[in-house]
Design brief:
Mean pLDDT: 87
Low-confidence stretches: none
Strand content: 5-15%
CATH architecture: Orthogonal Bundle
Largest sheet: 3 strands, antiparallel
Strand order of the largest sheet: 1-3-2
CATH class: Mainly Alpha
Number of domains: 1
Structural class: mainly alpha
CATH superfamily: Winged helix-like DNA-binding domain superfamily/Winged helix DNA-binding domain
Radius of gyration: 14 Å
Helix content: 55-70%
Number of helices: 6
Order of helices and strands: HHEHHEEHH
CATH topology: Arc Repressor Mutant, subunit A
Length: about 120
């Protein structure tokens, strides 16, 4: 029951919902990508990502000095169902459409060496 409560609490914030939407369409994204689209400081984005990670909604991976986030490759039936509902709902919401456009624009203009791993 505690895990279920934590899962739904983690989805009770609009910023965290937007992060999930962005990861659904963008796959693996760097914190800097999320900052650019959400127009929020790194500390705020990282705090929301930590909440999502602790609830098991995102996985992280360090690449050099950068942290990358993605949705879990394997998830419970419950989580998979919730993510499907969120993806379907996002198709009809204005904020999700705005975020999709902002992500596409950001990725198109992002420098090739931005967020690159340190060699």
């Amino acid at each position: 029951m505690r895990t279920l409560t934590q899962l739904f609490k983690s989805l009770s914030d609009p910023t965290r919902i937007r992060i999930i939407w962005l990861l659904q369409i963008g796959g693996e994204l760097c914190v800097c990508d999320l900052m650019a689209v959400l127009d929020l400081p790194q500390s705020t984005v990282s705090r929301h990502l930590a909440y999502l990670r602790n609830a098991g909604l995102v996985n992280d991976q360090r690449k050099g000095v950068w942290m990358y986030y993605r949705l879990p490759a394997e998830s419970s039936e419950l989580l998979a169902g919730i993510l499907r509902v969120m993806q379907t709902a996002a198709q009809d919401l204005e904020q999700a459409a705005i975020d999709r456009r902002r992500l596409a624009e950001h990725l198109k203009t992002k420098r090739a060496d931005a967020c690159r791993t340190a060699e």
